[in-house]
Structures are given as structure tokens and as C-alpha cells.
Amino acid sequence: MVSRLVTVCPGSAPFACVPLSTTACSHSFPARGRGPLEALAEELDGHPQRRLIERAVLSLLEVARTEKEEEEVWRLISGCLADISEALQVFRPSRGARKISVFGSARIQAHDPCHALAEEVARLAVEAGFDVMTGAGGGVMEAANSGAGTRHSIGLNVDLPFEQHPNPYVSDRSGRLLYFRYFFTRKLFFLRESDALVVLPGGFGTLDELFESLTLIQTGRTSPIPLVVLAPEGDDFWSMWQSSVTEVLANRGLILPEDRALVVEARCAADAVARICHFYRIYHSARLQQDRVELLLNAPIPAEQLPELNQRFGDLLEDGAIAAGESVDDNGILRPCLRLRFDKRRVGRLYQFLEHLNGLELPTAPALNHPGERLCSPM
């Protein structure tokens, strides 16, 4: 299998797919006569992230001092950095687009009800203002990209021992297909770029994506986003999973009972998209800081409602109180916000708090854009 990257080349179609063995873009490499270290030193001059770049270089230097013989170590480091660099290139133009990731089995056939369900949920997601990301393969992934259409589909493929051909709804769309060398960098970008996750029935790979997402959400390594599980009507795949996994874990004290709020089970495709849009009705986005969280909102919380919120959700706090304020989002827009020092072991309780906020009868701003420009239609 030939590994590929997706990148921009002068004089070619934007984000065309080219093999890694090809010199894709002359401007991606130092000018003739300069080595990469000289080019890096020049780039660092006045760079706003210089300190972090220097820390990364120091880490590479430390590995270089100790790993002189192990080529595999350097293949790993080089592959990880290449995955990250190429993914940042691909997603930079679409940072303003809201995205839903759809996970599910590649083995699902066209006659399976899951296939039609994936297609429908993707179509409704696009109607609500979202692009749709999948693993670029067949089955549920192809059905979702089909429902979204090539214009609103993004595929995150991965190198496998057997070649996984991208489905036709992402393979011919310039700038919409990316090949990863490693599963962990691929999952990183699924979570980094997603505003919501929809999981349909699947095997080990699908469940791995589900548990990885749950782990990163529960531990606060990613900002709160809705995670919806969905199966065809009459299919007990997720109800059985809920009873055999989450309920057992909660009953044995291995997760908190409130952690079950991290996952919601939808009745149908329309219900799944409606739940996602409801998640962003009042809540806009979160900034998880070292000592507190800022919840950016689409509408201000009236001062007279703060005492009730503090009384009802006081158990969420490490200390202090829930306070109202204002904060600037990633686009420089001033938004109302709530600030609180919450117990980071209780992200499930934070989800219950967000559900309560989204249920308040407050006028909302017309644009639910996280972090960019597009609208999420109210449902």
C-alpha cells in the first residue's frame, strides 16, 4: 500500500492527494542552500509560539541523544509529526465549519437497516448546518458520506495491513480526504475537530472509538461535546450495551452514576440530530483551564437565576460559586459565560449542568457557531 498525504501544491488543485514518496510542495521544504535547522531558526524569529516550539525541539534533541540505532523510533516520531502536520493543513480551511463524526462498522451491507439510518442521520446533519466526518471506508462510513454528499463529507482514512479503499464520496473530493499512519493520531483529530459524535453499531474498531471518546471526555481532555449512540428501531444493540457495560460499571462503583449522562441514546436519526442541536442551544463552548472552566454561552443567564443554579449544582463545585461574566471566543466575539471551579472527576455532573442550562427558557443568539461561521438550525 502506498501511503498518501493530502496537501496544497502551487499550480495544482487545492489539497490534492499525492504519494508520500513524491515531493508534494516545494514551499514545504527549505529553499535550496538552506538546511531544515537553518529554516527553523529563521522561522522562530518573532514567532508567537517560540517557547513551545523550543520545548518540542528540546524533546527531539533528548531522543536524538539516546536513540541512535533504533530506526523504528524515528519512523514513529516522523510519522506522528507528519500525520499532525498534514491534518492541520487539511482542517485549517474548515475550522469554521461545524462537524459531526459518524462511527460504525465497515462490514454493514447496503440492505442492513443501519446503512439507511447512517445515510439519513448524515443528511439531516447537513440540513442542520454540519459537515460529516467518517473513517472514509465502506459500510456505515460510506452510507454517512453518501447522505452528506461529497461537498459536506470529510474522510479520515488510516493505513491498515489490508488496504482500505476510500469510499467514492470522499475519494474524489479535493481537500476532503486524509490518510493517517497511526490510529491514535487519527482519533486525536476526530475528537479535536468534532462538535458531536454519532455512533452506530459496530465491532472492535467502533467500540474502540466510542471508549476512546468517552475516556477523553470523562477525563476532561476534550471539551464537552454530545455523544449519541444510534441503532435502527427494534435493534437492542445499544440498550444491551448500556445495561451490560455502563450500568454494571456504575453498580460496581467503577464509574459514577452521573457518568451515564456522557452518552445519550437516540430513538431515530431525527432525534439524534435534534439532541445534538439542543446541546448547543444555550451552551456554546468550554475552556477547560487549570483551576476553573469557562462555559461560553449563546445567551446570558439572568442574575436572579444564579442562586438557584448554585444551590442545585453546588455539589459540582470544588469551592467558590458559579459566577456570570463575559469572555471572548476564538473568533473574537464577546459572549456571556459562566465561570466555576468544578470537581474535574465529575464531568458527568457537568453534562447534567449543561443539560439544565440548555433547558432554560432563554432567548438564544441566532448563530450557534463553534468555533466558526456556520449556523446550527434549531430543532
And the CATH topology of the domain at 95-278? Rossmann fold
**How many strands, which pairing sense, and closed or not: the largest β-sheet?**
7 strands, parallel
What sort of overall outline do the alpha carbons produce when their principal axes are compared?
A: globular
Structural class: alpha/beta
Terminal-residue CA separation: 44 Å
Mean pLDDT reading: 86
List segments where confidence is low: pLDDT < 50 over at least 5 consecutive residues.
1-27, 367-379
Strand order of the largest sheet: 6-5-4-3-7-8-9
Radius of gyration: 22 Å
Beta-strand percentage range: 15-25%
Strand segment count = 13
By DSSP (H or I, 4+ residues per run), the number of helices equals 12
Q: Can you identify the CATH class of the domain at 95-278?
A: Alpha Beta
Helices and strands, in order, run as EEHHHEHEHEHEHEHEHEHEEHEEH
Fraction of residues in helix: 25-40%
CATH level-two architecture of the domain at 95-278: 3-Layer(aba) Sandwich
